[in-house]
Amino acid sequence: MIKYDRFCLDNGLRVLVHEDKSTPLIAMNILYDVGSRDEDPGMTGLAHLFEHLMFGGSVNVPEYDMPLQMVGGENNAFTNNDITNYYLTVPSANIETGFWLESDRMLELDFSQKNLDIQKNVVIEEFNQRYLNQPYGDAILKLRPLAYKVHPYRWPTIGMEISHIENTDLEQIKKFFFSHYAPNNAILALTGNISYDLAFRLTQKWFGPIEKRKMQTRNLPVEPKQNEERVLTIEKDVPSTAIYKAWHIGPRDSIDFHTLDLVTDLLAGGESGRLYTKLVREKKLFSEINAYLTSDIDPGLIIVQGKLMKDIDIQHAEEAVNEVIKSLQIRNGLNDEMEKVKNKYESSTVFSNTNILNKAVNLSFYELLGNPELINHEVDAYRKVSQKMVIEATTRYFVPSNCSTLYYKSTRKDK
Amino acid sequence: MNSLQRIQPQVFPVEKVIIPEALSFRLNNGVPVYLIEAGTEDIMRLEFTFRAGQVKEYLPLLASTTNVMLSEGSRNYTSEDLNRLLDYYGAFLNLSCEKDRAGIVVFFLSKHIEKVLELSREILFRPVFPEAELNSLMKKRLRWFMVNREKVQNLAIDQFFQSVFGKRHPYGHKVVEQDFNRMTPAILSDFHSKYYTPDNMAVIISGKIHEETTGLLNNYFGDISSKRIYTEDSENVLMGEKRKKVHIKKPGAVQTAIRIGSPTINKRHPDYPGLKILDSVLGGYFGSRLMKNIREEKGYTYGIGSSLSSLDLTGYKVISTEVGQKNYIKAIDEIYKEIRLLQSVPVEKEEMAVVRNYMSGEMVRMFDGPFALAESFRSVWEFGLDNNYYYRLAEKIKTIDPDEIIELARTYYNIDELYEITAGAK
């Protein structure tokens, strides 16, 4: 049970505080309610590029990292489809430095052309390193636009193409900041060796004076229901053929979310998951196989992906995947397996919550979903999933007309 | 409107870390056990570690394959049973095989300790290395190997170890496709019986330790005896290759991977703490010189860093980065430029202060919580050292002066002795 307090400043900043005296550190997390889904289709990758710019200095602080390192702190950030999230940990005596740094870059960034030019290069190298210079690195770049036709989830966080990043200018950056970065669009979480009183006083002092801003209203196109099977085949010089299958699911807060999460664990949770046991261990069709939810806030995807063993026919492998998924519709033996994945989920939650940084990130995210108390209820929600729910969800979502398949074929003779 | 003076808050010195000492005792058969009580949750981290790493192997892949095959079937359980049971009890099993040591680490809720001990005993002391599982594992691992060989960073680091330690030493030998055909149940079994023995083992437990923990450990592990097989350590001598610059061609690669470094002292050497600090200045944290220059000022790369690692027989330092095709030569020049600067110009007071404080903060993080504590304990214990190493490091962080940094850079970063490995198109 994680105890926390919550308050909201007049400027709209929402704050969560969880005190844990067993650590000498404090974690500070700031979540901004902006992600790549909020980008213009002609200028994708901006939210993530912006995350990089946030370290280039702010209106009263010429450099972000150095003063934090000076007080023994460490920080990083990530951007995804839905959010941009910044975090730091620092020895507790120096937490005020964290407030000074984070509030100043919320107040106003130091928009410099030089910093923009350099960070564009860094992001382009990141694009190269993660997506172009890795075998199969571009699979997700191909799969998204196959599954989504109108919703912004059709492009990845890094951006649809490098030219979008190259063409960004300082005016667009400024506009992006003032329409997405503001106390009324952010959530602050403090966990670790900090009392509520201190957290409250420092938040008032540093974030209180920042004024509310008018945010860009979110009005995203709704992805129409998919009604036909979609298939894309690409051929590349990779060591073996791979297959990616994606089915549309509901939003993060839909009642099926936990059921489907449990389904992915039944399929691929560790070495005893069904896909692994049947297709890697027994039938030796795949060298690796995985299943996961994208866990997006808007309607997301359940993805199954695997790499084939040598000389295996791709249709045969795909049929075998479908068969394993179908086996979830039969009650036989399901109960024990469900108990197993539920135990594993519970224990991974306990482990995750031993870390103050995880707690800060989770509290912020659940607040964004509308209820920080979810941090204490996720295990229950997962426990409550029944056999009937698994069978119903499997039957409802895993249908061919809801599926997009990417065949990533190897052109090598010896594959 | 904004009445607040946005001036920098006072900087408080990072308090000296007090490291809880591990409690040690021996099982009935003499196996050393280290207990580290820490944390608020009822969870445990249990590590069994053996001197059974790559250094002991006479064939490439032998140590890692033996390690991975431990959970592929035992006297009383099939591989499926073992994995299913571990999952059922919510336990996380990590098989680990490094250059010197190998073993397992299990994370679990303390209430399941008996089951975890029973399964660990099966995995560690009763594996059967079934042939069918081995064959399918080797085929699978060969596929992974083929994928990994597509990545320039892997090509570069494999060549780096070969260049630095020599292809005849297990620290340096490169794995090739044919190696995947050489593993048999018999040689795995032989390797296992030589190196996975009680007299070659230690147990490290951290988390919420209960009163019955020691008794339970004795029940499951205290009566296993060593077979006293005489083993002879390989006489292989560590000998780096003569060629200092090697380029590996990877047609079509968008980026070139760079690895620059050399063998160096390990943790047992008195200069090591100082070298650790020098390494931080050069490339050991986000504000380091390499990051500042090559990423933050020039934008050549998404990331660059240097690291210093200890092995039982030696140590090594390596600078690592991936750089776009058109800039990689420039990046290499900048790397040498930064090393030369450290050898000739004293680090300014302010930069020293940043490094000192950053590293002091790192030390707080290294001892925060049961898992971090266990890892930090293990990484000095395996060199026959104790927490005094960390206290010496902490002291060095406070007191090192810029002249000493220059001296260390001249002694340990002799540019003529550095290996320069690149992998990319061209």
List its traits.
heterodimer; A: 415 residues; alpha+beta; 6-stranded mixed beta sheet; 5-stranded mixed beta sheet; 15 helices; 19% strand; globular; B: 426 residues; 14 helices
List the helices and strands and how they pair.
The complex is a heterodimer of chains A (415) and B (426).
Chain A: E1 5-8, E2 14-19, E3 25-32, H1 46-53, H2 65-70, E4 74-79, E5 84-91, H3 95-107, H4 113-132, H5 139-147, H6 162-166, H7 170-180, E6 186-192, H8 196-207, E7 230-236, E8 242-248, H9 257-268, H10 274-282, E9 286-293, E10 301-308, H11 314-326, H12 334-352, H13 356-369, H14 374-383, H15 387-397, E11 403-410
Parallel strand pairs in A: 2-6, 7-11
Antiparallel strand pairs in A: 1-2, 3-5, 3-6, 4-5, 8-10, 8-11, 9-10
Chain B: E1 23-26, E2 32-37, E3 43-50, H1 62-69, H2 79-88, E4 92-97, E5 102-109, H3 113-125, H4 131-148, H5 152-165, H6 185-195, E6 201-207, H7 213-221, E7 245-249, E8 255-264, H8 272-284, H9 289-297, E9 301-310, E10 315-324, H10 328-344, H11 349-366, H12 370-381, H13 388-399, H14 402-412, E11 419-424
Parallel strand pairs in B: 2-6, 7-11
Antiparallel strand pairs in B: 1-2, 3-5, 3-6, 4-5, 8-10, 8-11, 9-10
Helix pairs in contact in B: 1-6, 3-7, 8-14, 9-10, 10-14, 11-13
β-strand number of chain B: 11
Count of individual helical segments of chain B: 14
Distance between the termini of chain A: 51 Å
**Rg of chain B (C-alpha, Å):** 24 Å
Main sheet specs of chain A: 6 strands, mixed
Give me the oligomer status.
heterodimer
